[in-house]
Design a protein that fits this description.
By secondary structure, this protein is α/β, with parallel strands linked by helices. It has two domains: 114 residues, Winged helix-like DNA-binding domain superfamily/Winged helix DNA-binding domain (Arc Repressor Mutant, subunit A, Orthogonal Bundle); 182 residues, Vaccinia Virus protein VP39 (Rossmann fold, 3-Layer(aba) Sandwich). 44% of the residues lie in helices and 20% in strands. It is built from 13 helices and eleven strands. A hairpin with a 2-residue loop joins β2 and β3.
């Protein structure tokens, strides 16, 4: 981030408005178009200038491009004096400049309408699938009990948390208060839209939504303290590959928590819900975890439905040579997390 390009980027009123919007939440380019009432090419040009100056950054989910502020801690160096000062300057400008404050307030009112539309789309999605979700839930024990058991298994401070196959974002929401930062990953753009609606009121500097596959995680080695896979691993054709990737991105001493099904004979779940695996035995899970570089703990068992749920946890050992990554086109997450 250089001061000359930064000041040039902030010299336009529209770009100032965009930066104040991004201070509240990550937005799609199309949503910025809606709020500012300008053309898509013009907004795209503004976004490019902000990104080139290091004030914002873009990432793609399917055909959508999302933009987030780098002043919130994404991408900029921790403790960057220039980023911190710029964020403070923009906040002070809104406080002291009444005309700018009025414009920002109007922009946030339109942004509130976008948030409401996101929530409505999420509600419509689940309404359309209510029967199939209810049929699957009827086979399982109380989800509140499962969540309580997961929290007990993980203990206190979670540090940097990665929720793999976040689905609707429920586990990311549940564990947010105990994590320094939450990264919610899913392969499905539709599921990320649901998670974004659920998590949109959390501080943007502490939540990041990422589109990606659990067999090729788009992260550097050893960057997370806690990794969770909630009702996700049974979708994997080769679950050991997913655990290899989870181990790769987990710091030594970090933890993994897997919530999934014990072995069962419900063959209909293969067709009705795309389950590739009909549960996991404790011995098989312990072996896969150990092979990936984790030290398994004693698993927890939750009965109370037609299907038994297990909570497996493990601690990451010292870093070691990794197995070869899975070829592209291999088993991927269909993103049906409850």
């Amino acid at each position: 981030m250089q001061i000359e390009s930064l000041l040039r980027a902030l010299s336009d009123p529209s770009r100032l408005r965009i930066m104040r919007l991004l201070a509240s939440m990550e937005l799609a380019v199309g949503e910025i178009v809606q709020v500012l009432g300008q053309s898509q090419p013009r907004i795209s040009r503004h976004v490019k200038i902000l990104c080139d100056a290091g004030l914002a950054e873009r990432h793609r989910e399917g055909s959508w491009v999302y933009v987030r502020s780098r002043l919130n801690g994404h991408g900029s160096a921790p403790g960057s004096a220039l980023a911190t000062t710029t964020a403070a300057l923009l906040a002070a400008a809104e406080q002291d400049d009444s005309a700018f404050a009025a414009q920002c307030a109007a922009d946030r009112a339109r942004l509130a309408a976008i948030r409401a539309a996101r929530a409505a789309r999420a509600a419509d999605y689940f309404a359309a699938r209510a029967v199939e979700w209810d049929q699957l839930r009827d086979l399982l024990c109380d989800p509140v009990r499962v969540e309580q058991e997961l929290c007990l298994a993980l203990g206190g401070d979670l540090g940097a948390l990665l929720d793999i196959g976040t689905g609707t974002g429920r586990i990311a929401e549940l564990l947010f208060a105990r994590a320094a930062h939450v990264t919610a990953l899913d392969r499905s753009h539709d599921m990320l839209a649901l998670a974004r609606a659920r998590l949109q009121d959390f501080p943007p500097e502490r939540v990041e939504l990422v589109q990606g596959d659990f067999t090729a995680l788009p992260f550097a080695d050893a960057v997370f303290d806690t990794v969770t896979l909630h009702q996700v691993l049974h979708y994997a054709q080769m679950p050991e590959r997913a655990l290899d990737e989870a181990a790769r991105v987990t710091r030594p001493g970090g933890r993994i928590a897997i919530v999934d099904l014990a072995p069962h004979g419900r063959e209909e779940l293969r067709d009705a819900h795309a389950h590739a695996r009909l549960g996991f035995a404790d011995e098989a899970m312990a072996h896969m975890l150990a092979e990936a570089g984790f030290a398994p703990h004693v698993p927890r068992t939750l009965d109370g439905g037609d299907l038994t749920i297990k909570v497996w946890t493990a601690t990451r050992g010292a870093l070691s040579a990794r197995k070869q990554p899975m070829p592209s086109g291999s088993a991927q997450i269909p993103s049906l997390s409850l």
